[in-house]
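Let's practice the habit of predicting before peeking. Look at the sequence and jot down your guess about where helices and strands might fall. Then scroll down.
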Amino acid sequence: MKQLIECVPNFSEGRNLEIIKQITDVIEKSEGVKLLDVDPGYSTNRTVVTFVGTPDEVVETAFKVIKKAQELIDMRQHHGDHPRFGATDVCPLVPVSNITMEETAKYARKLAKMVGDALDIPIYCYENAASEEKRRNLANVRRGEYEGLKEKLADAEWKPDFGPAQFNESVAKSGATAISARDFLIAVNFNLNTTSTRRANAIAFDVREMGRPKREGNPITGKIMKDERGNNIMIPGTLKGTKAIGWYIDEYGVAQVSMNITNTSATPLHVAFEEIKAKAEQRGIRVTGTEIVGLVPKKALLDAGYYFLKKQQRSLGIDEKEVMKIAVKSMGLDDLKPFDPAEKVIEYLLEKDQSAKKLMDMTCAGFANETASESPAPGGGSIAAYMGALGAALGTMVANLSSHKPGWDERWEEFSDYAVQGQKLKDELLWLVDEDTHSFNLIMNAMGLPNGTDEEKTARKKAMEEATKYAIEIPFRTVQRAYEVFDLCEAMIEKGNPNSVTDAGVGVLCAKAAVIGAYLNVRINAAGLEDKEYADDMVGKAKGVVNKAVARETELLQRVEKVIG
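Done guessing? Here is the structure:
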């Protein structure tokens, strides 16, 4: 499978849109990469760009954009609210799929050497690409910022990993660049109902992992205490894997706590939000909302949505889009400007780039019309999977209604668990709708292979056999998942809101139709397979599920009749 790396260069220009466009045009014209996001900030005078692609192409494109930024940005003229020391201030590489952090770090150092050697820019490698422990932390690498760069380069302990160690005319213009390999970093600003940078900083020091310096006597004005090596003694903050500062954003007229969450396992986004909120309240300040800078992994928002649903004692078994909406509203992600998950969530942007149209993206009418057309797909297999999905959806609906039933408040979690189970079943069956059509297309593609020479005949025969096996496995999976819908509907018939018992009953009917329909597809596809032992085994197992499904339908509908009666 294809390896993918994300690159998130931060450029020291957030006001001149023409310069930003010239930089991002380089990415859009490059092969093998996809520009995902451009996020300029006026007050910070900084633009965070995100693109993704295969490793070699990402490295090549990153080199090109660093070169373009070197041409267009003069650090001698730069002023902004964000710490920085170069035209391309930082350029982290992030493993996305089928690539390890170690491999990504090698690509980061390859890029660092290319830039240092060819462009004469001082390069510092940090985090997982760092050459020594003290360089892992970006704050150490960038300490002194651009204004202190000349002195830093003259210090033998801070000689760049690559590129010149002299503050010449070229370096005075470009500054230095920090390049890394790192995990997903969430850059987030928490909006405060104050204009006080000092108070925002105090909150930041409360929570960031580094914390604040320990002082003698007065904790604010007292002399900073030192250890035996002369380093500041620090009082750690409450959130692991975070870096934070406070600042005032003139663009919005509010102070913010600006945070980088470098370890989302240790500190998920919603945990950071809740802790900032608590520390702000202790100081008489309110968090009015949250601003995501750049992109965010889907898991961060889903975890947040589920967290706030639990706080409200509401069912977690709702559609992903609704979970996202809860996350957005709970953390005020749309406080300063609109927040569209389709434009800010990495996985959604990658899905959007896929050219193949999915059946499940159609309207109900469109899907029915496509099925009724002269095209052989979608066919019975896809329809069977869709009937199973509708059965799971009905069982989930009853669970969610039961979780909100007045007088059943203490049972919300019980029904939430059923609803979560139903959502998973529904989502997998919806995936099988498209995958059944895909498996049919694989057979058609194999049939279209050349069949002239003996070698071509052998290759075509092998491709047909493999495609046919897959076309058996997919409806068999539908048989299995659709049968699981019976368990959900049975629980709702027995335990759920009795006013919705007929909905669970219709779910049972859908499940039986899905099982039998998918079984028919297993049989017809197995008939064309040369591996008769495999074919007979799959048909036999599917038939066993059909027999159980027929019996359960009869039993469960009788229970529905009792409740109605």
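How did you do? The first strand starts at residue 4 and ends at 7.
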